[in-house]
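Lay summary

Proteins are chains of building blocks that fold into shapes. Our project writes down both the chain and a compact code for its shape. Here are two examples, one after the other.
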Amino acid sequence: MSRPLDVAIVNGTVVDGTGAPRRRADVGITDGRVTVIGQTGLDIGPDTEVIDARDCWVTPGFIDVHTHYDAEVLVAPALSESLRHGVTTVVTGNCSLSAVYSDPVDVADLFSRVEALPRAAVIDALQSSADEWDGPQAWARAIDERHLGPNVASFLGHSDLRASTMGLGRSTESSQRPTRDEMSAMEGELEKALDAGFLGLSTMTNPWDKLDGDRYRSRSLPSTHATWREYRRLHKVLRRRDSILQSIPNLNTRYDMAFFLMTSSGLGRKPLKTSLLAAADPKSAPLLFAAFGPMAWVTNRLLRGRFRWQHLPTTFQVHADGIDLVVFEEFGAGRAA
């Protein structure tokens, strides 16, 4: 005799994520796992929680692969705005930004203007938790100990890593390069993050996003000042560890997209799993938009890479009430500020 279900979701329209047509079905869950999907015959016992999903869609939990919850998760770990939209896993540490190694003021200067967050609130959130971690292993433990809504995974941000190693000032001067010891230190700290379960490294080559604060205001993020030689040293660690590179190309010149495609290549070596964010509007950049598919096909099929675009496949509208908007930095006036 089978064990009654813990949870039964009945009368819903199931969209299972496989590409199959949506259908009316019931879903049974045991020990936190979906164990049956069918139209009749669920084993419902007296202690089974029954959820009537009539007029609702029943889907797998969505994975939001690009968030900047690094500060918010510390003070509002339920991340209820994501749960409301059916998201059950979020990924932080994108775009070279994380809060693992740098001190609270430096992290606030890295994040606040890029993400249109109140700088004082970011500093307060980080300072209230600053004694909880001194590296990636302790950071991961501090996150796990909170009452999380969704699951949380993270990249290590290159700007965070670079600023903590070189200092925020030197790391945002293009004339400055990490010393041999500093480069070795960054490789070692990346290894520690991967040991702690981080997904990989996020970098940034697009110069639009700027620092907040009074010390180095309007300088581009530290990661944008790195050379490809520095990137390659860190990519080598990721490749060896079978980890992931997340990045954004230079949207002024765009040609460095080719460098990322070649970076992912597996010709004569292990391919590097690469996720490249490029929100090309099919209306304003139709040729580039049309080239995305062929470029990925060439990289993955002919160059034996493991490359994915991270991009919205359709047009979208932006609703805002002024310059306190994340994408303001991406307008001409924002980039010039």
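And here is the second example, written the same way.
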Amino acid sequence: MEKITKISIDMMGGDFGPEVTVKGLNHAFKKLENVQANLFGNENDINSVLKKYPSLIPKVRIHHTETFVPMDAKPTDAVRRIGKESSMWLSIDSCAKKESDVVLSAGNTGALMALSKIILRTIDNIERPAITALWPNPNGDSVVLDLGANIDVSSNQLVQFGIMGYAYAICVLKKENPKIAILNIGHEDTKGSNDLQEASERLSLIFKNNFIGFVEGDDLSKGTSDVIITDGFTGNVALKTAEGIAQLMAYYTFNTLKSSLAGKLGMFIAQNSFRSLKNKIDPRGNNGGFFLGLNGLVVKSHGGTDFIGFASAIEFSINLARSEISEKIRDLIGDNI
């Protein structure tokens, strides 16, 4: 019999709390087998929604707490003022105690990162964890890191990001021979800061032909590389810019077609194709940023997502827990750092 995979969920995180997290959990668990959930939050609030889904009740265990981390809380407040009784802290601690295999929260990103670093700590020889997410391209998905956890990074930290991203591509994306690149302002070896050039030299020694050098912003969506590494400032700006452009293009496309009778007729004829396009660009399908480099698996869902997006994050979390990514990172770091 396959091992039961246990997910720990901060039920009070996000903009909508249990109304979305419970409904999303029910939606995800209909598709998943051999799963259980440890739910951390206000028992009354959780049960008021959970009673709508009786088939879900045997698969969950509620851990009551009335304390939670507000979406606008400072990371220092989450640690010092709100403390160890919050739903976020307890859900992470469940992973640290090996009572859960992976943690999921739609709560405050800064607080989640701060608590995760304190409770789980980083893998040996990893200086800082990185926020990782999937970036769609014509060939499937690439993994991009960092997306906001580290504004300034050294060449050594970029090398660590490269190793962690490589492990992610193998274990989660199932890439047999993943290519790695550094995001820069040009492809030439002379472009970019000293840290970028030093990281490039070291990664070329570690990964040989798997390291393809520097890529530019337009390469992110081309699928030029399976792993793209950058500092958190650049990565976050790139991510938010891409999201904004996708929304703008969707707006232009559908409003232009709706502006004429011929366009409306075309939309009707091609409605299945437009439905497929909508599914491809729907951000809910890739809802789940992973904190890579910790002694435990932590996934961050978008705070404003609906139950479909949260269900997607749950599925991602379970698949992540069933991979061997932490072991792969430890092996690669031990061999190369």
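What can we say about the second shape? The mean pLDDT is 90.
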